[in-house]
Amino acid sequence: HATEKNGKVLNVSVEIATEHTGFQEKFIAGPRGFEFPMDKVPEGCLTMTFNADGFDDSQLKVFHILEEEHPPVGRVAMSPVMPQDSLRVVLTWDKQPADLDLHCLDSQQQHVYWKSQTSSNILLDLDDRDGYGPETITVKAVKKEAYKFYVYIYKDRTLVDDGSDFSHSKAVVKLYINGLDEMTFCLPKEYDRSLRHWNLFTVHIDRNGRASLEHHNSVTEGPPCSPSAGKAKDFPRVAYRT
């Protein structure tokens, strides 16, 4: 079913389309969710597009084989339409580990995460502790600063270690800047499975509101340090303030 984080029910339109056969079908997912007879859909790659008022479209690609039982789609994260001059990072993952935490450090020494969910212009919308996510951090009215993002596997010290690590997580992070096409980040192919910090990237904003991206994409033992401002020119430019 389709709900906002506060439990409000959304009417979401879902469009299923195939890449080669021209098949296309659209329907509404309400409070009871939706079921669709997949035996009517041709085999092959499908694109499912989810749309709701006030939210950016979200897409999911699946491969459909006739006469095979398909598992439920699961959760699909939809991001509210972004304010102008802002950026957003969205983390989703699988059932295990149960608790992945998204963090943001800025060059003014602000740190936003589950224990401190707001700062002057940074907001974590929800701390998800039962798998899947999403966890979303939005930076509004971006300033001439740097914003570094990372993910941490949280484990209560009182609990027995269940062996979960990033390799079980299927974690994906999406970055949205000023309404440009989303950028998707996955874990590196090789890393020490015992480590719990996934250092993602730093977004550098210059005095004209232009954004440049510094890639990290490494899994480390400890958390990264706060970023330094003033290095935007050293990295690929990805967006302009509108």
Number of strands: 15
Would you list the SSEs in sequence order as H and E? EEEEEEEEEEHEEEEE
Estimated structural class: mainly beta
Shape: globular
Uncertain stretches: none
The largest β sheet comes out as: 6 strands, antiparallel
Classify the helix fraction into a percent range: under 10%
Terminal Cα span? 35 Å
Continuous helix count: 1
Q: What is the rounded Rg?
A: 19 Å
Strands side by side in the biggest sheet = 7-6-10-13-14-15
> Which strand-content bin applies to the residues?
35-45%
- Rounded mean pLDDT is 80
Compose a concise summary of this entry.
The chain has 242 residues and is mainly β.
Main attributes?
242 residues, mainly beta, six-stranded antiparallel sheet, five-stranded antiparallel sheet, 15 strands
Give a structural overview.
- The protein has 242 residues and is an all-beta fold.
- It is built from one helix and 15 strands.
- It has one helix at 166-169; strands spanning 12-18, 24-29, 44-51, 58-64, 87-92, 100-106, 111-112, 122-124, 135-139, 146-153, 172-177, 183-186, 197-205, 211-220, 237-239.
- Strands 7-6-10-13-14-15 form a six-stranded antiparallel beta sheet, with no helix packed on it. It has a five-stranded antiparallel beta sheet with strand order 8-9-5-11-12, with no helix packed on it.
- The longest helix has 4 residues, at 166-169.
- The radius of gyration is 19 Å and the shape is globular.
- 24% of the residues are buried.
- The model has no long low-confidence stretch (mean pLDDT 80).
